[in-house]
Amino acid sequence: MQRGRALLRRGPAASWSGFVAVVKGIPRDRRWLFFLTLVNLAGFAYGMDWYRGQLASLAVWTWPVTADCPVSALLFGCVTATLALGRSCGPLEGVAYVASLKYGMWTVLIIGQSWLAGAPVDADSINLLWTHAGMVGESLLFGTVRPPRLHWVALGAVWAAVNTALDYGLGLHPTLPDQTPLWLALGASVGLGVLAVAFFAALAVKGRGRGDSWGVGASWG
Length: 221
Prior knowledge:
Layout: H1 2-9, H2 12-24, H3 30-50, H4 52-55, H5 63-66, H6 68-84, E1 88-89, H7 90-116, H8 123-145, H9 150-169, H10 182-206, E2 219-220
Parallel strand pairs: 1-2
């Protein structure tokens, strides 16, 4: 609190730069990492409950590719938990970053489109909107502060492509609002997947050779 007041007294420019510095420090702060682990695990539990009716009619092996967002939250929770324990896992980060950005943006887009098409703006859809916007922000923050390796981004691309193929090839995609046509959901899934992979690939190329500069212990990848 005192730090925030000090930043405000230094003027808008200093306050903004200080705020950015605080936010960029979140992926290095164990307290934040443990907190985000709990948030992501709670998001996973909430998401699985939201998908409960759809999953009940499907084989168990399809659940990871049907419950796209809950699984993405679980993967990111594993990332933050691993970092909080002073470790890192490149493959996990590559898949979690791509999946969280893709499906976070997809959900925000689909909800926004359904509202514009006449769907009710109710508490459930508002809650889904801001939680998935949080997934987008989380993946952008961690990916920027800790750029993934290019080969692990490629692994994330494979996961995204296989997931989309199964979702729309076998009809395993999330239940869509009545106002959302299937072609739009498919196009958004493909386009946003490409965008997410391209974004993290660019970060990977930019950060190549920089190494892990923020004190994580044992790592894989």
